[in-house]
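hey so u asked for the seq, here:
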Amino acid sequence: MERSHKTTGGMTLIEVVVVLAVVSALLGISYSNMSGWQQNERTSAFARSMADFYRFAASEAIRTENVQIVFLAAGGAGDAAGTPLLDPSGTPVPVLLLDDGPMGSPGQNCRIDAGEATHVLPAANGVSWGFAASGGAKAPGDSTPTATSTGSSFALPSGAPSTWVAFMPDGRPLGFDAACTMGQLGSGNGGIYLTNGQRDFGVVLTPLGGVRIHTWNPGAGQWRS
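ran it, C-alpha coordinates below
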Protein backbone atom coordinates (compact mmCIF):
# COMPACT_ATOMS: atom_id res chain seq x y z
CA MET A 1 0.00 0.00 0.00
CA GLU A 2 1.50 3.34 -1.10
CA ARG A 3 1.55 6.31 1.26
CA SER A 4 0.82 9.73 -0.23
CA HIS A 5 3.35 12.53 0.43
CA LYS A 6 1.06 15.29 -0.80
CA THR A 7 -0.04 18.20 1.36
CA THR A 8 -3.68 19.16 1.63
CA GLY A 9 -3.13 21.73 -1.15
CA GLY A 10 -1.92 19.07 -3.56
CA MET A 11 1.84 19.86 -3.43
CA THR A 12 4.34 17.19 -2.56
CA LEU A 13 6.83 17.75 0.23
CA ILE A 14 9.62 17.87 -2.36
CA GLU A 15 7.81 20.64 -4.23
CA VAL A 16 7.38 22.61 -1.01
CA VAL A 17 11.09 22.28 -0.23
CA VAL A 18 12.03 23.45 -3.75
CA VAL A 19 9.71 26.47 -3.52
CA LEU A 20 11.11 27.43 -0.12
CA ALA A 21 14.67 27.12 -1.44
CA VAL A 22 13.88 29.38 -4.41
CA VAL A 23 12.17 31.96 -2.19
CA SER A 24 15.12 31.93 0.22
CA ALA A 25 17.57 32.46 -2.64
CA LEU A 26 15.54 35.36 -4.02
CA LEU A 27 15.30 36.93 -0.57
CA GLY A 28 19.06 36.59 -0.16
CA ILE A 29 19.70 38.31 -3.49
CA SER A 30 17.22 41.07 -2.65
CA TYR A 31 18.84 41.63 0.75
CA SER A 32 22.30 41.80 -0.82
CA ASN A 33 21.14 44.30 -3.43
CA MET A 34 19.33 46.39 -0.82
CA SER A 35 22.34 46.36 1.48
CA GLY A 36 24.64 47.51 -1.33
CA TRP A 37 22.20 50.24 -2.35
CA GLN A 38 21.95 51.50 1.22
CA GLN A 39 25.73 51.61 1.57
CA ASN A 40 26.10 53.54 -1.67
CA GLU A 41 23.43 55.97 -0.51
CA ARG A 42 25.25 56.47 2.81
CA THR A 43 28.50 57.21 1.00
CA SER A 44 26.79 59.56 -1.43
CA ALA A 45 25.05 61.34 1.46
CA PHE A 46 28.37 61.79 3.28
CA ALA A 47 29.94 63.26 0.13
CA ARG A 48 27.04 65.72 -0.15
CA SER A 49 27.39 66.58 3.54
CA MET A 50 31.09 67.25 3.00
CA ALA A 51 30.31 69.59 0.11
CA ASP A 52 27.77 71.41 2.28
CA PHE A 53 30.35 71.60 5.08
CA TYR A 54 32.72 73.52 2.81
CA ARG A 55 29.93 75.89 1.80
CA PHE A 56 29.02 76.39 5.46
CA ALA A 57 32.65 77.15 6.32
CA ALA A 58 32.83 79.80 3.60
CA SER A 59 29.54 81.39 4.70
CA GLU A 60 30.64 81.40 8.35
CA ALA A 61 33.91 83.09 7.40
CA ILE A 62 31.97 85.85 5.66
CA ARG A 63 29.37 86.14 8.43
CA THR A 64 31.81 86.24 11.35
CA GLU A 65 34.70 87.92 9.49
CA ASN A 66 36.90 85.29 11.15
CA VAL A 67 39.23 82.67 9.71
CA GLN A 68 37.37 79.36 9.49
CA ILE A 69 39.47 76.22 9.12
CA VAL A 70 38.33 72.79 7.95
CA PHE A 71 40.50 69.96 9.30
CA LEU A 72 40.29 66.44 7.85
CA ALA A 73 41.18 63.31 9.81
CA ALA A 74 42.36 61.65 6.58
CA GLY A 75 45.12 59.20 7.41
CA GLY A 76 44.54 59.86 11.11
CA ALA A 77 45.54 63.53 10.87
CA GLY A 78 44.57 66.22 13.39
CA ASP A 79 44.96 70.00 13.43
CA ALA A 80 48.16 71.88 12.55
CA ALA A 81 49.66 70.84 15.91
CA GLY A 82 48.52 67.22 15.63
CA THR A 83 45.62 67.61 18.07
CA PRO A 84 42.99 64.91 17.35
CA LEU A 85 39.66 65.96 15.86
CA LEU A 86 36.97 65.31 18.48
CA ASP A 87 33.35 66.28 19.06
CA PRO A 88 32.31 67.87 22.41
CA SER A 89 31.89 64.41 23.97
CA GLY A 90 35.42 63.36 23.01
CA THR A 91 34.41 61.10 20.12
CA PRO A 92 36.74 61.17 17.09
CA VAL A 93 35.22 62.76 13.99
CA PRO A 94 36.39 62.73 10.36
CA VAL A 95 35.89 66.46 9.78
CA LEU A 96 36.03 69.50 12.06
CA LEU A 97 35.45 73.21 11.41
CA LEU A 98 37.32 75.63 13.67
CA ASP A 99 36.48 79.31 14.17
CA ASP A 100 40.07 80.51 14.55
CA GLY A 101 39.21 84.15 15.21
CA PRO A 102 40.06 87.37 13.33
CA MET A 103 42.98 87.18 10.94
CA GLY A 104 46.20 88.14 12.72
CA SER A 105 44.69 88.17 16.22
CA PRO A 106 46.71 86.65 19.12
CA GLY A 107 44.65 83.44 19.18
CA GLN A 108 44.54 82.98 15.42
CA ASN A 109 47.10 80.18 15.22
CA CYS A 110 45.49 77.44 13.07
CA ARG A 111 45.20 75.21 16.14
CA ILE A 112 42.27 74.01 18.21
CA ASP A 113 42.45 76.00 21.45
CA ALA A 114 40.19 75.73 24.49
CA GLY A 115 37.04 77.79 24.16
CA GLU A 116 37.14 78.14 20.38
CA ALA A 117 33.92 77.36 18.54
CA THR A 118 33.88 74.20 16.45
CA HIS A 119 31.45 72.29 14.27
CA VAL A 120 31.89 68.64 13.34
CA LEU A 121 30.72 66.18 10.72
CA PRO A 122 30.09 62.75 12.31
CA ALA A 123 31.45 59.58 10.76
CA ALA A 124 29.24 57.57 8.41
CA ASN A 125 29.10 53.80 8.87
CA GLY A 126 31.05 51.94 6.19
CA VAL A 127 32.60 55.08 4.66
CA SER A 128 36.38 55.49 4.72
CA TRP A 129 39.05 57.76 3.27
CA GLY A 130 40.76 56.78 0.03
CA PHE A 131 39.63 54.75 -2.95
CA ALA A 132 38.77 51.21 -3.99
CA ALA A 133 38.29 51.29 -7.76
CA SER A 134 39.63 54.61 -9.09
CA GLY A 135 43.28 53.65 -8.65
CA GLY A 136 44.10 57.07 -7.24
CA ALA A 137 42.98 59.02 -10.31
CA LYS A 138 42.38 62.70 -9.55
CA ALA A 139 38.84 64.02 -9.90
CA PRO A 140 38.24 66.88 -12.38
CA GLY A 141 39.33 70.22 -10.95
CA ASP A 142 41.78 68.72 -8.46
CA SER A 143 45.03 70.31 -9.62
CA THR A 144 47.28 69.76 -6.59
CA PRO A 145 50.47 67.68 -6.74
CA THR A 146 49.32 65.54 -3.80
CA ALA A 147 48.37 61.88 -4.24
CA THR A 148 44.90 60.75 -3.16
CA SER A 149 46.07 57.72 -1.16
CA THR A 150 45.22 59.18 2.28
CA GLY A 151 41.87 60.54 1.09
CA SER A 152 43.06 64.18 0.99
CA SER A 153 44.87 65.88 -1.87
CA PHE A 154 45.18 69.31 -0.23
CA ALA A 155 48.64 70.83 -0.13
CA LEU A 156 50.72 73.23 1.93
CA PRO A 157 51.90 76.42 0.19
CA SER A 158 55.20 74.55 -0.34
CA GLY A 159 53.39 71.79 -2.24
CA ALA A 160 53.73 69.16 0.50
CA PRO A 161 50.58 67.17 1.40
CA SER A 162 48.16 68.53 3.99
CA THR A 163 44.75 67.72 5.43
CA TRP A 164 43.30 71.18 5.98
CA VAL A 165 42.11 74.35 4.27
CA ALA A 166 41.30 77.82 5.64
CA PHE A 167 38.47 80.11 4.56
CA MET A 168 39.24 83.82 4.74
CA PRO A 169 36.72 86.51 5.81
CA ASP A 170 35.91 87.09 2.13
CA GLY A 171 35.09 83.38 1.70
CA ARG A 172 38.07 82.37 -0.42
CA PRO A 173 39.91 79.14 0.50
CA LEU A 174 43.65 79.18 1.15
CA GLY A 175 46.21 76.55 2.00
CA PHE A 176 48.50 77.13 4.98
CA ASP A 177 51.40 75.49 6.77
CA ALA A 178 51.84 74.30 10.36
CA ALA A 179 53.13 77.76 11.32
CA CYS A 180 49.80 79.22 10.11
CA THR A 181 51.37 81.02 7.17
CA MET A 182 48.70 81.42 4.50
CA GLY A 183 49.30 80.66 0.84
CA GLN A 184 48.37 82.68 -2.21
CA LEU A 185 45.00 82.86 -3.94
CA GLY A 186 44.27 79.44 -5.45
CA SER A 187 46.24 77.51 -2.82
CA GLY A 188 43.01 76.21 -1.26
CA ASN A 189 42.32 73.90 -4.19
CA GLY A 190 42.14 70.21 -3.31
CA GLY A 191 39.93 67.17 -3.01
CA ILE A 192 38.81 64.52 -0.58
CA TYR A 193 38.30 60.95 -1.69
CA LEU A 194 35.82 58.57 -0.07
CA THR A 195 34.95 54.92 -0.61
CA ASN A 196 32.71 52.21 0.77
CA GLY A 197 34.87 49.50 -0.74
CA GLN A 198 32.83 49.32 -3.93
CA ARG A 199 32.07 52.87 -5.02
CA ASP A 200 34.41 55.89 -4.91
CA PHE A 201 33.48 59.55 -4.50
CA GLY A 202 35.57 62.69 -4.91
CA VAL A 203 34.64 66.09 -3.46
CA VAL A 204 36.72 68.86 -5.01
CA LEU A 205 37.14 72.39 -3.66
CA THR A 206 38.03 74.70 -6.53
CA PRO A 207 40.65 77.47 -6.18
CA LEU A 208 37.94 80.12 -5.78
CA GLY A 209 35.75 78.11 -3.40
CA GLY A 210 33.33 76.22 -5.62
CA VAL A 211 32.51 72.63 -4.67
CA ARG A 212 32.02 69.71 -7.06
CA ILE A 213 31.05 66.09 -6.29
CA HIS A 214 32.23 63.30 -8.59
CA THR A 215 31.54 59.55 -8.68
CA TRP A 216 33.92 57.01 -10.18
CA ASN A 217 32.47 55.13 -13.16
CA PRO A 218 34.23 51.72 -13.27
CA GLY A 219 32.87 50.87 -16.71
CA ALA A 220 34.20 54.03 -18.33
CA GLY A 221 37.27 54.19 -16.11
CA GLN A 222 36.73 57.85 -15.31
CA TRP A 223 35.01 60.28 -12.95
CA ARG A 224 31.52 61.55 -13.64
CA SER A 225 29.80 64.55 -12.08
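The chain has one domain: 46-224. The CA atoms of residues 58 and 171 lie 5 Å apart.
lmk if thats what u needed
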